[in-house]
Structure formats: structure tokens, C-alpha cells
Design brief:
The complex is a heterodimer of chains A (81) and B (408). Chain A is of the alpha+beta class and 81 residues long. Chain A has two helices and four strands; from the N terminus they run E-H-E-H-E-E. In chain A, strand 3 and strand 4 form a beta hairpin. The mean pLDDT of chain B is 95. The chains are: A alpha+beta (81), B alpha/beta (408). Chain A: It comes from Caldiarchaeum subterraneum.
Chain lengths: 81, 408
């Protein structure tokens, strides 16, 4: 039996660096390969930080959406020990 | 009679107990108010000195004193671990079976650095976050270290004293240079953050220094495990780094009593209003310092400054000020850069840290604080901190402003 892929929503709105990256780091610990992490953030630096994180760790940013008053970043976990 | 119970006798709990005892001196003497402090033991450790013990060879005994001698005599102190906190029934139970009812509760139970949370870390690393005597093991190891790979690695976030991994890297460099063996040692910092220090303005100051000193910084490092036999540290995404000496910043969690009492989140951090410091959904219970889930430095200075705000809110309830006081999020964390220089990471909720020049004066200020700490805990030196750090509490209604002053 394979484990169903899960969607982990992380709400970092209102928190500034390193808040969003800290929350993403924690979500990544809980996640499995194939899972999707949806990070909600108000810190504009979250965009570039998460993209750099994905490049470094071998995971994929599926989309970055400017919602009303916040940013929604969707990440697919591709690499995890 | 109004009962104030404080759980936790670290920096925040001790400051709060002493400040309350000063402010409520007459009421306590008249039997109208009691201040009761529950602490794990009668030991009080000046935790920032762990770094000096680990990397400068200071004696650990210097930084441990008896809590009972640091407290205002009007505070009733129970040096026994808290077993359970019941926010609904307004009661704290201790391991010895004591049951304390309260009108106001202040939780200052701190954070626990727990190497057992990462596989292999306990056996494979040394650290200066689990007390001065464990920090002394680092110094013992360093003295006999003749060359190889030294890795400073952050194993989890959040952790106590955000500048401490950087300070460790810089002080290691200084140590090996002074011994004339720096070229035989490779120093590496593994951090989960996007840069050497989470705040960009501070990173801009220290990254050139890392480069100049030849210390490699590996960013976005998420520690998975350590193999103590092979001496390898692994990341979640498959990176691995060999080491001869691993100095780890262990993962942290909330205190056992918080986890047992189910008043924290999944990691044991207490959901707390970052301004008023009241525990979520309660108007008679507050939390300060490392114990909270507030996204701010877990550090002594924050515990200290928050204790002042929490005390004002407890006083407001007891004295009927009709105000709720708000913390402005002030932090002021020193970061040693080696060779007697330091900077201060200083910010509030609304004002991020700004770049600054490293200086000797700042390093002297840091070491001066370690000397006045024990006296400061009495609450008698609050005016100095106010002068240096400004007002950290403001009344919500803009009405009564209260200044904590030493009682006569």
C-alpha cells in the first residue's frame, strides 16, 4: 500500500524572515516525497527565499500566486531522505 | 487574598517574581497578595555564558547560583518541578503533590534543547545549549584538537540565542588562530536559513567576515540525522558532511510540564498574544520568554523585557488600572565576532535590525552584562535597561502609564 500524497498548508502570514522559511523547514520535516506544501506568507522576501530553498534542496516550486494581501507558494516535495 | 503563581525560575520567572514583590510589597505584607514561584530546582544558570565556557575555557561553576538567594524574601519559592498546569481550574500541581490555586498565572518554563530529537545527535555531537557543564566538554575536546573538520550545525528551529551558531564559528576561528593551527582546521557552519543570519541586514555585516576567515557557510541545511560511527551529518534532502568534531545546536521543544498539561502546540510552545502576552483564550494566564510560540528570538533579553510587560498586566488586574499593556517586540541580542568585537542584533516588531559596524565597545557591553546579571535579576537596575533599550511596554487605552521603579 502506498501512502496517499498529502497537502500541507502552512500559514506564515504576519510573520517576517525567518518566519516563512522556519515554517517551511518544519513542514518539510513532516512531508514525504510527492506531498505538496502550500505556504501562505505576507513577507515579500518569502518568494525569493523559497525559490532559493527549492533550488538548493532539489524540490520544486509549482506556482507563486499573489493573492489579495498575501502570497501563496505551492511546493512539490521531490527529494527527501 | 490574590494569588499570583509563576512557573519557571529562569531569567523571565525570576525577574517577574522580584518585580512583582517590589511593586506589591505593602499588599504582600498586609496579606492581600501572595507571589509564589515554582522552579525545577534551586539552581539558576546564566545561560549566555555557556558559550564562554565552551569556547573560552571559563569555569562553569562561575555561572550557577542558588535561586533562593536571588529572590526577594517576599516571594515564596518552591524548588520542585511543576507536574501539571490546569488553566481551566486555575491551578498548578507540583511533583511533590503541592496544589497551588491562582488568580493570575505567569508561565516562564523556557525551552528544552533536546539532542534526542535527532537520530544520532546525542552520541555524535557536543553542544553548549544543554548547560554549562556540557559546554565544558567542548572546551576539553578543543584543547586536544590538533586539526580536522569542525562542523557547527543547527539541528532544528527555533533555538535559544539565534546568534550563537555564528558566535561559535567565529570563536572557533579565533581559538585555532591563537593556537597557530588554523590552517589545519576546516570550519563549516550548517544553517537552515537562506543566509548566514536570518536577518538580511546582519548577514550583510557577517558574511564578508566569514569569507575573510575562510569559514564555509552552508545554507538551507535541514538536518535529518547523524551517524556517530562514520562521523557524518545528513540533511533531509540527501546532503552529507563529514566531521571530526560536531558542535550542534540541538532541536528545541517546550518544557515537559507544558507538553504534559497540553497547553502548548505540537512542539510544546504556548500560543501567546505577542503584544499582551496573555495565553490564547485566557485573561488570567500569561506566558513569557522561550516558552511561548511568539516568532521572536528565544533569548534572555526577550524573557527579561517580556517579564516587565507581564508584570504590568498582572499589576493592572490587581490594582485595577483598567489597562492592558503591550510589548513592542524589542530584542537586543549581542553577537560576538571574535577578537574582542561584537554587534547587537536589535529590533522591534515594527523595525527590523539595521546594519552596523562591529566594535570593541559592544563586546565590552556584552561582557559587562554577564557581570551585572545577578544584581539585575533583583529588578533594581531596570532604569539602566530602560535607558539603553527604551520603553518596551505601552498601555492599550493610552491611559495610565506605569513605570516599574524599585520600591523603597
Amino acid at each position: 500500500m502506498t501512502q496517499a500524497e498529502q497537502r500541507i498548508v502552512v500559514d506564515s502570514r504576519g510573520s517576517f524572515c525567518p518566519g516563512p522559511i522556519t515554517d517551511l523547514y518544519k513542514a518539510y520535516r513532516r512531508a514525504n516525497v510527492g506531498d505538496v506544501i502550500e505556504l501562505l506568507a505576507t513577507d515579500p522576501a518569502a518568494k525569493s527565499d523559497v525559490q532559493a530553498w527549492a533550488r538548493k534542496t532539489g524540490n520544486e516550486v509549482l506556482e507563486i500566486v499573489d493573492e489579495q494581501g498575501y502570497i501563496r507558494i505551492v511546493i512539490k516535495v521531490l527529494r527527501k531522505r | 487574598m490574590k494569588h499570583v503563581v509563576i512557573v519557571g525560575s529562569g531569567t523571565g520567572g525570576t525577574f517577574a517574581a522580584n518585580l512583582l514583590a517590589k511593586q506589591l510589597r505593602s499588599r504582600i505584607k498586609r496579606g492581600e497578595v501572595s507571589i509564589e514561584l515554582v522552579g525545577e530546582s534551586d539552581e539558576h544558570v546564566f545561560q549566555p555564558a555557556n558559550l564562554d565556557v565552551a569556547l573560552k575555557g571559563k569555569r562553569p561553576e562561575r555561572y550557577v547560583k542558588r535561586e533562593s538567594r536571588l529572590l526577594n524574601p517576599l516571594v515564596k519559592f518552591y524548588p520542585e518541578a511543576a507536574e501539571k498546569i490546569d488553566l481551566g481550574d486555575r491551578r498548578v500541581y507540583t511533583k511533590t503533590g503541592r496544589s497551588l490555586g491562582y488568580d493570575y498565572l505567569l508561565v516562564a518554563t523556557g525551552a528544552v534543547a533536546d539532542p534526542s530529537m535527532t537520530p544520532g545527535l546525542e552520541e555524535g555531537s557536543l553542544n553548549f545549549h544543554t548547560g554549562p557543564f556540557n559546554a565544558a566538554r567542548i572546551w576539553e575536546k578543543l584543547k586536544g584538537f590538533s586539526g580536522g573538520r569542525v562542523v557547527v550545525a543547527v539541528a532544528g528551529v527555533p533555538y535559544k540565542c539565534p546568534p550563537s551558531p555564528n558566535e561559535a564559528a567565529f570563536l572557533l576561528d579565533e581559538h585555532f588562530r591563537k593556537r597557530g593551527i588554523r590552517e589545519r582546521v576546516e570550519i563549516k557552519l550548517l544553517t537552515p536559513y537562506p543566509r548566514a543570519y536570518p536577518a538580511e541586514a546582519i548577514s550583510e555585516v557577517i558574511e564578508p567576515l566569514y569569507e575573510r576567515l575562510g569559514i564555509e557557510v552552508v545554507t538551507f541545511f535541514s538536518m535529518d540525522s547523524v551517524d556517530p560511527k562514520k562521523k557524518v551529518v545528513y540533511s533531509l534532502d540527501g546532503e552529507e558532511y563529514e566531521y571530526d568534531l560536531l558542535l550542534a545546536i540541538p532541536p528545541h521543544r517546550g518544557a515537559d510540564v507544558i507538553i504534559r498539561s497540553e497547553v502548548g502546540d505540537e512542539e510544546g510552545w504556548i500560543p501567546t498574544d505577542k503584544h499582551t502576552l496573555f495565553i490564547k483564550d485566557y485573561d488570567d494566564a500569561l506566558a513569557i520568554g522561550d516558552a511561548t510560540n511568539i516568532p521572536i528570538s528565544k533569548s534572555g533579553v526577550v524573557a527579561h523585557l517580556e517579564s516587565g510587560v507581564a508584570v504590568l498586566n498582572i499589576l493592572s488586574g490587581i490594582e485595577g488600572y483598567g489597562e492592558v499593556f503591550r510589548y513592542n517586540g524589542r530584542i537586543n541580542c549581542p553577537m560576538e565576532l571574535g577578537y574582542g568585537r561584537a554587534i547587537f542584533v536589535s529590533a522591534t516588531y515594527d523595525k527590523p535590525p539595521e546594519p552596523q559596524k562591529p566594535s570593541r565597545i559592544k563586546a565590552i557591553m556584552k561582557s559587562t552584562f554577564s557581570r551585572i546579571y545577578w544584581k539585575a535579576l533583583s529588578g533594581d537596575l531596570e532604569w539602566i535597561f530602560k535607558l539603553f533599550l527604551g520603553e518596551c511596554a505601552s498601555p492599550t487605552n493610552g491611559g495610565k502609564t506605569v513605570t516599574l521603579a524599585p520600591a523603597r
